[in-house]
Write a structure and sequence with these properties.
The chain is an alpha/beta fold. It has helices at 43-52, 70-73, 76-83, 91-99, 179-191, 208-216, and strands at 7-11, 23-28, 31-35, 60-64, 86-90, 121-123, 127-132, 135-141, 150-156, 159-165, 196-199, 204-206. It has one domain: Ribonuclease Z/Hydroxyacylglutathione hydrolase-like (Metallo-beta-lactamase, Chain A, 4-Layer Sandwich). Helix 5 packs antiparallel against helix 6. The chain binds zinc ion (ZN) (2 copies).
Length: 219
């Protein structure tokens, strides 16, 4: 599904595997990047969808992981193998991936194990910029749902696209969620005034008002 001329939905419950969170693809000037990887249950369908969107899987430079949860990361190693990309995650969630913590990554919720996953680029601090073709991708730490939860933005077709993923939470002690951080992160997302929100489980919201209403509904 095309969202803008650079952004596509290429995976998720309806596209790759019923347990997958949404997987988004950015393409620009022969380079590409993915936002999250799903569980891996639909790895072959994911590669087909990347090709259908017009990208060569070998052009995927980065796999940005918005947080450590299994429905977003279980397929990460397979994506790295299939594309040769580098895996990016915030350091505060990378630790749970590298240790293969099935509790904090919620793999146990899916009756699965989190295999220890090497993260190639760990983001520390509040913000890091990446380049994908002519796109400037901003990776922001937005904790709350998990300690290292992060969001990304990119400008495409004159619109600010926000990859919020698990904007809706949930908050849970076993996930090390922190309510005050979550509220602060929602407020930060509102301050971005994004035109399009790509969510992890609730689909794509188009229009500033719809994006604001959705984020505000969790405050
Ligand atoms: Zn999720
Ligand atoms: Zn999550």
């Amino acid at each position: 599904m095309k969202i803008t001329s650079h952004v596509y939905l290429v995976g998720g419950a309806g596209q790759t595997d019923p347990a997958d969170a949404a997987i988004y693809l950015m393409i620009s000037d022969g380079a590409a990047a993915l936002v999250d990887a799903g569980t891996g249950g639909g790895a072959e369908r994911l590669m087909k969808n990347i090709q259908k969107a017009g990208a060569d899987p070998r052009a995927v430079r980065y796999l940005f992981l918005t947080h450590c949860h299994y429905d977003h990361t279980g397929g990460a190693e397979r994506v790295r193998r299939d594309t040769g990309c580098e895996i990016v995650a915030h350091e505060l969630d990378a630790v749970f991936l590298e240790e293969g913590d099935s509790e904090v990554t919620a793999a146990s919720w899916y009756r699965a194990w989190m295999e220890p996953l090497k993260v190639d680029i760990t983001v520390s601090g509040a913000k890091q910029l990446f380049t994908v073709g002519s796109l400037e991708v901003a990776f922001y730490h937005a904790p709350g749902h998990s300690p290292g939860s992060s969001i990304l933005t990119v400008r495409s077709d004159g619109k600010l696209v926000l990859f919020g993923q698990d904007v809706h939470g949930p908050l849970n002690d076993s996930l090390r969620s922190v309510r005050e951080d979550y509220v602060r992160s929602l407020e930060f997302m509102l301050s971005l005034e994004a035109d399009i929100l790509c969510e992890g489980h609730f689909g794509v919201y188009v229009g500033r008002e719809k994006v604001r209403d959705f984020i505000e509904s969790f405050l």
